[in-house]
TrEMBL record:
InterPro entries: Bact_2-comp_sensor_kinase, HATPase_C_sf, Sig_transdc_His_kin_internal, TPR-like_helical_dom_sf. GO terms for molecular function: kinase activity. This is Histidine kinase. SUPFAM superfamilies: ATPase domain of HSP90 chaperone/DNA topoisomerase II/histidine kinase, TPR-like.
Amino acid sequence: MRHSLPYLIVLCFFFQGCQNKPNEEVAKSTLATQIKELNDIQPNRDNMDSLMAVWHALDDRAVKGKDTVQSTDIKYNLARLYAMKKSDSSQYYVEQALELIEPTSGNLKQKALIYNGMGNIWAEKAKEHQAGYYYNKAASIVLSDTAVPLSLDAKGIMLLSAAQSNRNLFQYDLARKMHEAAMPITDSLPAGHLYKQRVLVQSIQLMALDNTPADTMKIYLDKLDKLHHENQMSYDISFYYECKAKYFDRIKQFDSLYYYQAKKNQIDEQRFEFSAINSASVNTMFISYVNMAATAVSLKQPAQAWEAFKKAGQIMKEYEDLIDTNNLILYQRNLASLYQLQGNSELAFTLMNGVYKLQRDFYQSKNNQAIAEMNALYQIQAKERSIRALNDDIAINKLQLQKNKLLLTITILTVVLLIGGMFFLYYFFQQRKVRQEKEKILLQQQLLRTQMEPHFIFNTLAAVQSFVRLDRKEIAIKYLNRFSRLLRSSLELSREKEVPLDEEIEALENYMSLQQMRFEDAFVYELNIPDEQDLGAIMIPPMLIQPYVENAVLHGVDFNDRTGRIVIDMEIHKDVLEVTITDTGKQQEHKVNAHRSLSGAISQERIMLLGKKAKVTSGTTEGGRGTKIVLLIPVVYA
């Protein structure tokens, strides 16, 4: 901070020296260099006043030089500095910049920045339609021309601001389009960047309003979950809890909804206690309590609902002038639901009448504001049409000069297209070759799974036959009931290329319980899974572990002394699942029968088809009596 001030002083003297140079082109080049160097200095509380003084000096020089782009850049930077100081002068300078740059052709970078700045000005004044108009103009430049020399940060914030504005104006399709365009940009930003979280949070918030199917919502929630897992300290956990709550609200799991609302509420309370009192902080805390109360009503827990309403009412009493009317409507509607839950229909009806009147007045006020904003937009658009007409006249005069350039451009484009076409054909054939190899491996995997399913079903039906032969009907019925659930799960899993690890574990537990019943509790088993992982997001090939567990049951347990034990341990190492299966062994050695050999051979082939990271090893336990199998299975994350 201290080193920038002397630099600025020297720069000021340098500016004064440059003013004496007679050569106008040299002066413009020097001014451009100085603007670039100033842009590299990050403003802060210590150097803010010095920076503004230098920018004002540059503004005077740019006016004398009459360079439109340079004047625009300077006025935009002055507007940005005044905005940081919360000064109304920011609007004055950004409007001056807009008047300078709007009539020009090209200059898309400057136009996009100034449109976005105008959007910020109107958003700060709660003029939603005017803000949306300028946000969308900035975003349309980003969408229409990928070569605009804007940073990824600038492109990301323009698209996200436009998306949020369109959402507030109920333009959900347009907001979704902005989110989709922002996704690849935010993916290119460094790990821990704020916009990586913001694009996912805004998308989930939009889906909650637009009644998007829960499955689609879950995809974005899983991405947000992974983002927070990889960079826990970089992102605001409050938004994560909010998105979790919106998902569980969509699927009507009110217990989970209340849990995440409570987690978010704890953070909101801490921030509210230490933050400055303003409209945003008051409304965030108020609506947090209202949402918790509404969920408690859905769970039919009036005591918890009253507690939340009491806290919301206290905030409303202390900061009534700061609370948005829309939030107040939501408060009264949910309070009426609580009275209805407690059987006080008369008071609930009275409250709903009040809600109706409040909504009517609120929407009337919003309509009047929208009409006023639309009139202002009409004036803005009329002015822009006049400017465009003037530009058209200028363009006609330049058309003759462009004819000669057109032929050269067409020639260059033709050559580029031919070269691009050749590269495309080469890339296409390479990709088709890779795709054919992948399909071949997939078909081999499916064939091997098809060979294993009859083996699994045959063993299970043999056990049922044994129970029936021994006239143990109740056990046979119970066994068949569990087997039907396992078979249904097995058939569902076998149709997929990859399945979530938690579903594979559930099928494995069902299988082990069936085997315990089959052998009349002649052994016990233990299944250890990683608790800290989201097992639903980890995908593995189906029914790959079960054959090894089956061999452990049939060939690694002594059914005579009934003290057998099988332990299955699972650990995740980045993109590899390590599964360790140990058994206690038998008193006497037995030859591996042909059935077991076939199962082992098929499983070994499936493992080999999974790639270099896949592996299976076997050995004996420390006592030398039991067997230890270690599987390394590559995983992918959903």
